[in-house]
Design brief:
- Chains A, B: Keywords: Aminoacyl-tRNA synthetase, ATP-binding, Cytoplasm, Ligase, Nucleotide-binding, Protein biosynthesis, Transferase.
- Chains A, B: GO terms for molecular function: ATP binding; glycine-tRNA ligase activity; transferase activity.
- Chains A, B: Belongs to the class-II aminoacyl-tRNA synthetase family.
- The structure is a homodimer of 681-residue chains.
- Helices cover 36% and strands 26% of the residues of chain A.
- In chain A, 44% of the residues are buried.
- In chain A, strands 3-10-13-23-18-17-16-14-15 form a 9-stranded mixed beta sheet, sandwiched between helices.
- By secondary structure, chain A is α+β, with helices and mostly antiparallel strands.
- Among the domains of chain A are: 76 residues, 2-Layer Sandwich (Herpes Virus-1); 178 residues, Bira Bifunctional Protein, Domain 2 (BirA Bifunctional Protein, domain 2), CATH 3.30.930; 86 residues, Signal recognition particle alu RNA binding heterodimer, srp9/1 (2-Layer Sandwich); 116 residues, 3-Layer(aba) Sandwich (Rossmann fold), CATH 3.40.50.
- The longest helix of chain A has 22 residues.
- The radius of gyration of chain A is 31 Å and the shape is globular.
- In chain A, helix 2 packs across helix 8.
- At the A-B interface, strand 2, helix 4, strand 3, strand 4 and strand 8 of A face strand 2, helix 4, strand 3, strand 4 and strand 8 of B.
């Protein structure tokens, strides 16, 4: 479960705080954090301008080189749907392959693959049918829909920014509304919209009362139209409903983790600000996206992790709740220490935070623009033990890319209740344990005499008492001899006397313990990670022409969409033959590459492949040895034709770095002719 | 585009044959082929029984070992939705990875990744909104839906099988209805159902008239409810709508291929026979499935393929149209010859048939149970040049798993027309070419005098004439001096005189040719391929106990879900340390494996891993060298601990076979104790 305010509302679910204004300060702070204000208070106009210019350069390159494009463009596109073109698709495949290696394979997780089409009952149990909603208002004449909270936010912000006549009281009021926005009920939002006279931004028409809009894509399964279904809003539920089989598959042993990669769907309504679609949010705000989710099931009484030592020495930026609430910044923490000091709730959660850190930084995310932010109390579900988001800073601010939550037993219990199938684990004791158990023994005879026809209801109510209730009754009976007792099924209180029930703690032998496992859930928004990766890897360097800037995606070989290019230096047959031979060897080694016979200048070809982040280029300028060039340093070495595929494989598989390779082969000095032409692109 | 009768109806689209009975013989033949009758006429009861027993053994093993299970099982499941559990998910990932290597990487295809949610306009253009339907009838009282053709088929079959009093005329009639079933219109189906008095099988209630049910899952995009959308029924459309960008990405050069792997959705209504859901169709008949599709764009005037020689020597089972229509069997053909003799329409189509053959057989599909069947004329769309299905024989008969169609320019033209965006390619001539072109020059003056206010309409109609119409008019004018001409915009004929228009073929210089590319489309139903692979790899061998049969999935290492297991022979610490060391080396080499410390008997452990198709097992019975065992031969060799991961990698990467390895290492003779225990599982 990750992303979107609705999912957060769902996570925090009921009971909604009756007095949302209590958490106001914390929420305001969270908004500032999200906008990057707290972290960089001097958010000057020029810094914003630079950010904007950088973003334009990145996204123009991404769209021009078909990393991604708006879907169905020839039909005008659909907000929030994007296609990955060839290089984007390759980056995505690489990220997912590495995710499988890093998590599924290294941790021995059980991967599953469930359908997107989901029957209603499953999402009723999970809470999505009832709670996964945004509050909308409708233009009463045109029917255009708006997010109610967005309109109210825009109104307040506008007042604060542009109205110089505001009284200090009004200023405080608008700030307060902004702070509590996320926690307002439909009624409270509607009242504010009425009070401030907010109308439809496009038409100035009056607005309807706020109503909940479910963010799931609804559909119908089968021809009868009688089986409602939804496109899954997350992949997690497919794992929970399979818990029983997976637990059995794992030899009825805990802990174990299941994982799933797949599409998820959210019919987001938040594509507009004042009715204007803002297409530049690109891959960060979409209606269909790839999620990679892990559900790690543990014994709630033992959340230690056997491999925690493997990550416990890692240090990285963390942003605990305390730091956020006291207005401080994120800081470097040692994850081992954070767990031992209780900042992070348990070892398993800490282990995954460490593993996520390694995953993201090995992909190419800049460790200085990555932080783990702990959820504030009002962001978290009432059942959650602890929750941390991996946030990555990009030109849009800090973006939540991975959520790592200890969701306790909530999900398994919900499906257990709804389906009637026990989703639980058991621990066999090495030898039977003696436990104290409460035993309630009503006296049928006495109850019958006292309550006659109501005997059964009273008896059942007594047996259904919780331990606390029973112990309270026991002490009351012992001190006073009788006690008033509410029997719900009768709708009234009855008087229970000492003779009617005996309540005792008794010793019993137990052979096993049954329990609902807790689940630790790392949930990865793959598209968001990829977008941030694009920004972190992008840079420009001067070309030969004045003011010319050449674009480079400095992807690590692991994620580079194409690992290598092969160019004949000039368009002559003997070089083309060698180029084809090398291409064949690269294919056999499973290395994605391009062979470019166009005869463009070498400089132009380098510039083109730098722009899609190809780490290595092979120029065939000889029939026995060739030039290999590194994208970032532009260093060149000479390698034998027969050896070149294995050298490229060594670097792109991560066994060696370019620096390692450099020393083993003679350097090649670029001719003036080659480099000069780089400016002609 | 692949699978399902509705898609076939769509492919064959309009115009529906006005006299469907013409193609009767061919259709009847196709049905027999599908049922395996033509190929194996002696389909005796005992053969069917064996098939059934084999299928039960396979599917029981598959479900018990969680290769796949019905989705949402704890809620009773949903017909046609399946989850891949851990081993199934790994097999699927391996199949897709190999598909990427074999097609995308080796052919330099442009891979894209488009959303499943698709706006209506796209599927309106492709024909799916109007044509992708099944004809249904409803129980008029309960609302239960049935496939109209299924009910009619069941009725006729039942009559033929059970009614001994049938006259020869009636027998012929029922056989005839069965033969033409696929081609009956709604009206014809309805009339037959009425004529035969067919009622709802469950309730005997009367049935509604047949009505078309669209097989796409419908949904709505955005909060307004005003933008209908569908879950894509195939991935191909995402490629077609991106043609312009992809062509540009490819340097405006043909041919090139784009590819996409992704989920597709079909709200199949055919899960019941007489209202009884038949769950055993498993992965063959599903509502959501993974497709892998290639759209190879070529110049319609040149469908040669530069790499055709790489496959032209291949020989495999082919089943050309002629063989089917003359009642012969599939036969071994050389694909080079099949193309040169015109059996296969063109080289590109032939190339892909060859590549598909290599792909499937390298996965582990038995080449003797794989055939390429050419579509009969009435199966093919009117625009299609040629179409071959890769069919794999399993216990359900011959299953269409890959469709390989030359769809000509149909799809690009459809989207071009609907979107108004030209989806075409151009060929620049080395030097300008002189071409003859028709030039129609109406005389405005004469038209104005004759038609006054209608002048513009007549003029536009003249200019819009096709070449044939214009040449006909020219000759009529030359012979008769005037001609009647229908002007649609006026709704009437007018008389055109010789003076009003000049029509001439003129010579012009052209610098390039513009055209809509043809598309060759190989489309892979991944789930069907995987199911057939399960059947082809499954075998049983006797255990030690009497009558005991041990299940084995003989997967090639390429697709095996887990490549290797590591067991300490006995549960002692020094062996466990070695096992962990080996496991670490395997992980580093990217080899999926299981480490089993349970202390079960070695025989039991072998049997368990044979059943999920693990090719190699490492038994740690020493601290310096270990035993490696081959699943199929049960041969064992001894390998040094430090070497074992690289030996396993060699075999599972396909660089060496077990036979290669065997000779390099000393054999290990299994102790009686080890093998005896195999029977205890």
């Amino acid at each position: 479960m990750l992303l979107s305010s609705a999912s957060r509302a769902l996570a925090a679910a009921k009971p909604r705080s009756p007095e949302p204004f209590a958490a106001a300060a914390a929420v305001l702070l969270r908004r500032q954090l999200a906008a990057g204000m707290a972290a960089a208070p001097a958010s000057s106009a020029s810094a914003a301008g630079n950010r904007e210019a950088f973003r334009v350069a990145v996204t123009n390159t991404l769209e021009r080189r078909l990393f991604y494009v708006p879907s169905f463009k020839i039909y005008g596109g659909v907000a929030g749907l994007y296609d990955y073109g060839p290089p984007g698709c390759a980056v995505k495949a690489n990220v997912l392959a590495f995710w499988r290696q890093h998590f599924v394979l290294e941790e021995g997780m059980l991967e599953v693959d469930c359908p997107c089409v989901t029957p209603e009952v499953v999402l009723k149990a999970s809470g999505h049918v009832d709670k996964f909603t945004d509050l909308m208002v409708k233009d009463e004449k045109t029917g255009t829909c708006y997010r109610a909270d967005h309109l109210l936010k825009d109104f307040c912000k506008d007042k604060l920014e542009k109205d110089n006549t505001l009284s200090p009281e009004k200023t405080a009021e608008f700030n307060h509304v902004l702070a509590v926005l996320d926690d307002l009920s439909a009624e409270q939002l509607g009242a504010k919209i009425k009070e401030y006279g907010i109308v439809a931004p496009d038409t100035k028409n009056p607005l309807s009362d706020p109503y909940p809009f479910n963010l799931m894509f609804q559909t119908s399964i089968g021809p009868s139209g009688l089986s409602p279904g939804y496109m899954r809003p997350e992949t997690a539920q497919g794992i929970f409903v399979n818990f029983k089989d997976l637990y059995y598959y794992n030899g009825n042993k805990l802990p174990f983790a299941a994982a799933q990669i797949g599409q998820a769907f959210r019919n987001e309504a938040r594509f507009s600000q004042n009715g204007v679609i803002s297409p530049r949010q690109g891959l960060l705000r979409v209606r269909e996206f790839t999620l990679a989710e892990i559900e790690h099931f543990v014994d709630p009484e033992d959340k230690s992790h056997p491999k925690f030592r493997d990550v416990s020495d890692l240090e990285f930026l963390m942003f605990p709740r305390e730091q956020q609430l006291t207005g401080k910044s994120a800081m470097k923490l040692n994850i081992g220490q954070a767990v031992s000091e209780g900042t992070v709730n348990n070892e398993t959660l800490g282990y995954f935070i460490g593993r996520v850190y390694l995953f993201l930084t090995q992909l190419g995310i800049d460790k200085d623009r990555l932080r783990f932010r702990q959820h504030l109390p009002n962001e978290m579900a009432h059942y959650a033990a602890d929750c941390w988001d991996a946030e990555i800073e990009c030109s849009f601010g800090w973006i939540e890319c991975v959520g790592i939550a200890d969701r306790s037993a909530y999900d398994l219990r919900a499906h257990s209740d709804k389906s009637g199938v026990a989703l639980e684990a058991h621990e066999k004791f090495a030898e039977p344990r003696e436990v104290e158990k409460l035993v309630i023994t009503p006296s049928k005879k006495e109850l019958g005499l006292a309550f006659k026809g109501n005997q059964r209801m009273v008896l059942e109510a007594l047996e259904a008492m919780s331990e606390t209730e029973a112990l309270n009754m026991k002490s009351a009976l012992e001190s006073k001899g009788e006690v008033e007792f509410k029997v719900c099924t009768l709708g009234k209180d009855v008087t229970i006397k000492k003779s009617m029930v005996s309540i005792n703690m008794e010793k019993k032998k137990e052979h096993q313990r049954k329990f609902t496992p807790s689940v630790i859930e790392p949930s990865f928004g793959i598209g968001r990670i990829i977008y941030c990766l694009f920004e972190h890897c992008f840079y420009q360097r001067p070309g030969k022409a004045e003011d010319e800037q050449l674009n480079v995606f400095g992807f690590p070989p692991l994620v580079a969409p194409i690992k290598c290019t092969v160019f004949p230096l000039v368009k002559i047959e003997k070089f083309e033959v060698v180029a084809k031979k090398i291409s064949k060897a690269l294919t056999a080694a499973g290395i994605s590459h391009i062979i470019d016979m166009t005869g463009n200048t070498i400089g132009k070809r380098y510039a083109r492949t730098d722009e899609i982040g190809v780490p290595l280029a092979i120029t065939v300028d000889n029939t026995t040895s060739v030039t290999v060039r590194d994208r970032d340093s532009k260093d060149q070495i000479r390698v034998e034709v027969d050896e070149v595929a294995s050298v490229v494989k060594e670097v792109t598989d991560g066994q060696s770095t370019w620096a390692d390779i450099m020393w083993r082969y003679p350097a090649h000095t670029a001719s003036a002719a080659e480099e000069e032409e780089a400016s002609e692109t």
